[in-house]
Amino acid sequence: MSSRYTHRYVALGDSFTEGVGDWDQRSPNGVRGWADRVAEQLVLADPSWGYANLAIRGRKMRQILGEQVDAALALQPTLVTIYAGANDILRPSIDLDELLAEYDAGIARLRAGGAAVVLFTGFDSVKSAVFGKTRGRTAIYNELVREIVDRHDAELVDYWRMREFQNWGYWDVDRMHMAASGHTLMAVKVLEVLKSAHSIEVPELEARPALSRLTQLRKDALWAREYLGPWVGRRLRGQSSGDALPVKYPELTHPVWTRQATSP
Fold first, then answer.
1. Per DSSP, what are the bridge partners of residue 6?
2. Rounded mean pLDDT of 187-214?
3. What residue ranges do the domains of the chain occupy?
4. Which residues contact 200 (CB under 8 A, 6 or more apart)?
5. Residue 83 pairs with which residues in a beta bridge?
6. May I ask the CATH class of domain 2-210+247-262?
7. DSSP string, 184-236
8. Residue-averaged pLDDT of the chain
9. 194 Cβ partners below 8 Å, 6+ apart?
10. pTM for this one?
């Protein structure tokens, strides 16, 4: 399969890379996402690009390293993007030094396979009343990721420093995943790191009216009931929203949106 393509992009990770929040039933698993959008631009500029996306929502770092790295190497990638560790940071306890040492070994394997590798820092959740409590962990994670990038001559998408994403207009109603607008902006950011031309237009966000304290409290209570509660419940039961899902693009191909755009 890989011999069909001169350039081979393989995306690894969890819900961030799978595309959760960028909902579209025309795409596998019902999501599009920034990685698909990056691949679409690469393919439109040069059809010799092939694309695979092995990311599955809910995956923790050791799952990503154990399930996705070997599968990626089998596709002989020339480009890999990987973001792993966000779901680990949200756990009650974590040994970041041990975990990032394993991440380092995984990145070393990808680089040894000949791929250019792009990593991400974690998002600064300073404005989140719930996830802001993990901000310190994320800052430590980011410094260790920067060391990995330097050690292996990888590329970095510095999510932490992208202050645009502090605007809630870029986020889905679950407040955990980027919306279509956020995934679109992230695709642009990744393409800029790759120094790749693109034709993506980032949508302008609509101004959001200020809410009264009572209205905001009601919205927060609804969010906690519909999204936070189920999310906590799954973790207490050892379950993941991605347990029964297949991989979006297990083999190299052109993403569905590109096929639709170029079909007669």
1. none
2. 88
3. 2-210+247-262
4. 37, 41, 184, 187, 188, 191
5. 13
6. alpha beta
7. HHHHHHHHHHTT------PPPPPPPPPPPHHHHHHHHHHHIIIIIHHHHHHHH
8. 90
9. 38, 79, 118, 155
10. 0.90
* Whole-angstrom distance, CA of residue 187 vs CA of residue 215: 34
Joined tokens for residue 111? 């680089």
Distance CA 156, CA 249 (A): 24
Q: What is the pLDDT of residues 11-52, one digit of tens each?
A: 999 999 999 999 999 999 999 999 999 999 999 999 999 999
211 token code pair: 């809410």
CA 113 – CA 122 distance, rounded (Å): 25
Question: What is the amino acid identity at position 239?
Answer: Q
Q: Is residue 53 within 8 Å of residue 11, measured between CB atoms? A: yes
Token digits of residue 226: 């519909």
Would you call 50 helix, strand, or coil by DSSP?
strand
